[in-house]
Amino acid sequence: MATQPQAQFSQAQFNQALKKYYSVYTGGFIAFIIVLAIAEQLGMPNRWIGYVFLFATIALYAVIGIMSRTADVAEYYVAGRRVPAIFNGMATGADWMSAASFIGMAGGLYLAGYDGLAFIMGWTGGYVLVALFLAPYLRKFGQFTIPDFLGERYGGSTARLIGVFCAILCSFTYVVAQIYGVGIITARFTGIPLEIGVFVGLAGILVCSFLGGMRAVTWTQVAQYIILIIAYMIPVVWLSVKLMGFPIPQLAYGYALQDVTQREQELIDDPKEIEVRNIIKERAAAAAAALKNPEASLESQKAAYEKHLAALHAINAPPVQIAQAEAAVRAHDSLETAKAQWEKDAKLAARANPPKRHAEAFSGATPEARDTARRNFLALVFCLMIGTAALPHILMRYYTTPSVREARKSVGWSLFFIFLLYFTAPALAVLVKHDVYHSVVGTSFASLPAWIEGWRNVDPTLLSLTDFNADGVLQLAELVLGGDIIVLATPEIAGLPYVISGLVAAGGLAAALSTADGLLLTVANALSHDVYYKLIDPRASTKRRLWVAKTLLLVVALLGATVAAQKPAGILFLVSAAFSFAASSFFPALVLGIFWKRATSLGAILGMVAGLGVTFYYMATTQPWLREMFGVTSSIAENTWFGINPISAGVFGIPVGFIVIIVVSLLTPAPSAKVQQLIEHVRYPRLRGGIDTTMT
Amino acid sequence: MELTEKHQEYWRKNLRISAILLAIWFVVTYVAGFFAPQLNQITFLGFPLGFYMGAQGSLIVYLAIIVYYAVYMNRLDKEYDVAEEE
After folding, report:
1. How many Cβ atoms from other residues are within 10 Å of residue A355's Cβ?
2. In a designed cystine with A401, which of A81, A193, A406, B27 is the match (CB 3.0 to 4.6 A)?
3. pLDDT per position as a tens digit, A23-44
4. Could you give the CA distance from residue A139 to residue A693 in angstroms, rounded to a whole number?
5. Closest C-alpha to A147, from A157, A132, A135, A136
6. To the nearest whole angstrom, how far is the Cα of B52 from the nearest Cα of chain A?
7. Which residues touch A108 (CB under 8 Å, ≥6 apart)?
8. Can you tell me the distance from the alpha carbon of A175 to that of A218, in angstroms, rounded to the nearest whole number?
9. CA A143 to CA A84: how far, in whole Å?
10. Which helix (H) or strand (E) holds A235?
């Protein structure tokens, strides 16, 4: 099936075949899980289960990737435009949901409560804009990349080149984070170091895309969606049955939330909790003071701790307390160890606050603080939505449907498949919180649940416990959970066998691989199609174009993996920044290009530059990591506008982009008749006697 | 080619439905978001309503908007004879 043209099959036959293949595939995957579950009961070690999941799923993607190899340009760039709405929806879902959505989302909601919902709303509501303003028109336009549209609509290579620059800016930082995510998952489940795990993961990414471009990526993404949604749902449903006695967590968790809200109040007022929070507060304050005058503090503090230890010995205090006091004395043996300890303690200050109320919107001590929280919430939702509707790796997917009609339906399917995970994540966060507040907090250290014991030895950033008040009982303020643990530990919290933990890892891997593939293709295609074919050598043969495309794909992938292996600081910020960048550069130019015939080339060029420029300027002057990079010395406070966080910088860039395009367009002569005709062409699914822009 | 009056009407209808749906999107997202603390006073299916809208309600409305638009436009294409050949 690899290279022969498939035109002899009708679209209906093709759809039937696809449904059959993927039903068999899903059944086979479930059978595979059951076989592994039986093997586990028969004594297969956990490590082996991890290996089998990792390598079996990657091998599966490789088979699909190799079967979908192609030597046809339209197959390589847009999967031959034969992808039915529902399958394009699944592929978009996998393309969209990254490792951060799969592993981090529920944890983020656990930690942030209502405020975290900005991501849920932003990353789904953006599809409304895709459906109403972009997908059907881009499909009618029917070329290969987003810069293609900018190039045709705004004539000439400048608009195209700016589009290429923006596409690479947004997608490359994003792909680095995905490769990093693949590396982390590979490392955790096989025990190989992250630096090598990154390159193992890279092999998994390349088998999906190298031989078949968009065609291979599409069909592996559908397969990856099926795995990731099964892996997400099974543990949550099981947990819901265990905690609520009801298998639909999304409906049942309202009552769990009521319970959590009540428990929060008890924990806020609990005298033991207050005691622990005060100990933490005092220790943080003492450490901060000591750091100001280290030499003098060392002597006095060491003396104080020795005195405390002596007093404990005198009253025959429990061994836990004596061990703690001894450790404190030892920490003050030298100035370096003492300083390290103080720096650690000073950071405790963040933990001295009472627990956040999960359902409370826009918390803050003063009305001004609450107003700022609300402004930031709404601004973030706005940037994430517009960014969603402007990220090239998503928009590109709507070039692959057979018709405008299917493109419209496909946006609905996309959101449906994304919705399944996104309306489950808040439920999972509440259910885990319910369990933690009831069966973990208030339990004695000797009888903590097995999953807490298991994970505290794995990684202190995921889970750590300290008995501050040495009462032998765990208070909430003594427990630190990292966001990622929520999804990773759910199978154990729900009391499921290890095979389900392996399944969750395979799901996380599928999410990271599928997103990485979509992004990688966007970057490589921008270079091979828009720069090489369109600008450097428009007469290149098909064979040469594909050779260039595949070589660039390899180069970009290796570059991404090399950057990821350095574990760059600030990578997480850059990913969220990608939304603001995409929103302020692409969105105004694309939407006005379709809906306003008067938008001119110069207007769009200046608008994209101005929108991106304002966004970038705001980030560079208010985000600590970027400030350091650019040597900004003025204070953050004086650069901040309306208290908006740097992550939402697009809220300024997007309006600037629109205004500049409109003003400059009105000052320049209207676009040519040819451009007017192009706009009419994309507005109607079929226009008798119209032009044809479809690229084959 | 010159667009007929019928073509113009198709486009106007498209703009109208897009504007209406966008307005619904705006209310569900930003008006409901702005008043989330107030909506949280109301209980819906066991949830504080403000939280429910952020976690589920708005998502359901987004999905409904997209599905309605697809159905409406695919019908409008046929009605105005601009639908693609099967």
Report:
1. 19
2. A406
3. 999 999 999 999 999 999 898 8
4. 10
5. A157
6. 8
7. A116, A119, A483
8. 17
9. 18
10. helix A213-244
Q: For residue A257, give the chain B residue with the closest CA.
A: B47
B48–A408: do the CB atoms touch at under 8 Å? no
Q: Cβ neighbours of residue A626 under 8 Å, at least 6 residues apart?
A: A570, A573, A619, A620, A632, A646
Inter-axis angle of helices A46-67 and A498-525, nearest 10:
30
What token pair was written down for A35?
A: 């076989």
pLDDT tens, residue by residue, B12-40: 999 999 999 999 999 999 999 999 888 98
SS3 content of chain B, % helix, strand, coil (to 5): 75, 5, 20
Which pLDDT tens digit goes with each residue over A292-341?
877 777 777 778 788 888 888 888 777 777 877 787 777 777 777 777 77
A361 interfacial to chain B (CB closer than 8 Å): yes
Vertex B35: Cα angle to A581 and A97 (nearest 5) = 40
| Residue of B5, B12, B62, B65 to mutate for A, most A C-beta atoms under 10 A | B62
Chain A residues lying within 8 Å of B59, measured CB to CB: 120-121, 124, 419, 422-423
* Rg (alpha carbons) of chain A, rounded to whole number: 28
Three-state secondary-structure class, residue A688: coil
The verdict on B68 touching A (C-beta cutoff 8 Å) is no
Q: Which residue has the tokens 């947990």?
A: A239
Q: Are A213 and A549 in contact (CB under 8 A)?
A: yes
String of DSSP letters for A294-332 = HHHHHHHHHHHHHHHHHHHHHTT--HHHHHHHHHHHHHT
Please state, in angstroms and rounded to a whole number, the distance separating the CA atoms of residues A523 and B48.
Answer: 43
Contact of A688 with chain B, judged by CB distance below 8 Å, is answered with yes
Which pair of structure tokens corresponds to residue B7? 């073509």
